[in-house]
Design a protein that fits this description.
- It contains 2 helices and 8 strands, in the order βαββββαβββ.
- 24% of the residues are buried.
Length: 139
C-alpha cells in the first residue's frame, strides 16, 4: 500500500522534509506548469505553475506520493488516519521521531509501551499525523 498526500502549496517542501527525515530521496517530481494543455481543462493559472502535480519519495523500502491540490479544489486538512513508520529498534525509532516532529507537535511522547520498546505520535509541521513504532527485540 502507498500513501498519497495532498497539500496546499507545500508539497515540494514537505516531500523534501520527509525524504531527509526518513533517509530517502525524491524519485519523481512534476509541476502543474509542466503538464501539456488539455482542451477539456482550463489553462493553468500562472501562480500554480510551480506547484506540484505529482511527486514521489522512496525511503526505507517505502513509497510516499503527494501533490498540491489543483486549482478550484480546496485543501481541507488531514483527518482520520496516521502514517506509521516502523523502526528496527528504539534508538532508530527515537531518531525518526525526532526528525519527523521537528517544527511539529508531539501528541504522545516517544517512549516504551507494553507492545513496543519505543512508540510515539506526532503531527508534523505540515499537519500530517504520524506514529513511529519500534519493533520489539526477537525472543
Amino acid at each position: 500500500m502507498i500513501a498519497y498526500l495532498s497539500f496546499d502549496g507545500r508539497c515540494d517542501e514537505a516531500l523534501d522534509f520527509y525524504a531527509a527525515a526518513l533517509g530517502g530521496r525524491k524519485t519523481m517530481r512534476s509541476t502543474y506548469g509542466e503538464a501539456p494543455p488539455a482542451p477539456e481543462c482550463p489553462p493553468t493559472p500562472e501562480e500554480w505553475k510551480d506547484r506540484i502535480m505529482h511527486a514521489r519519495i522512496e525511503a526505507r523500502g517505502l513509497t510516499l506520493m503527494g501533490s498540491d491540490m489543483p486549482p478550484g479544489m480546496p485543501f481541507e486538512g488531514y483527518k482520520g488516519f496516521s502514517l506509521t513508520v516502523p523502526a528496527q529498534d528504539a534508538a532508530e525509532g527515537e531518531r525518526l521521531f525526532k526528525a519527523l516532529s521537528a517544527g511539529g507537535q508531539v501528541t504522545m511522547p516517544f517512549g516504551a509501551t507494553f507492545w513496543s520498546p519505543g512508540f510515539g505520535m506526532l503531527t508534523d509541521r505540515f499537519g500530517v499525523p504520524w506514529m513511529v513504532n519500534s519493533e520489539p527485540a526477537a525472543a
